[in-house]
Amino acid sequence: QVQLVESGGGLVQAGGSLRLSCAASGSIVSINAMGWYRQAPGKQRELVAVITSGASTNYSDSVKGRFTISRDNAKNMVYLQMNSLKPEDTAVYYCNAGVRTVLRYRDVWGQGTLVTVSS
What φ, ψ does residue 51 adopt, rounded to 5°? Predict the structure, then answer.
């Protein structure tokens, strides 16, 4: 079984920063792309940023220049540094990873961590 556990969410004022972390654990052979998604109240889940195993990154237009995704392959972790936060960044942030185990390939989600940005 593979699990993703996020941490680092919380309440921050507009203009502030937060760093989210996501740790993958379990019977992992390798991890392909890792990413962060978010879902605001009443809205669909959307991609925030993704990073490949080779460290190529892609960001949504709404966070480009403000957020940075990174990963530590040795620790099976992915991070999201969020700067210049805006109230519209308020959402539950979910970690996602494409994980290869001994038996199969799985698309795994974390339970989410809430980020609230006050104006």
Answer: -135, 130
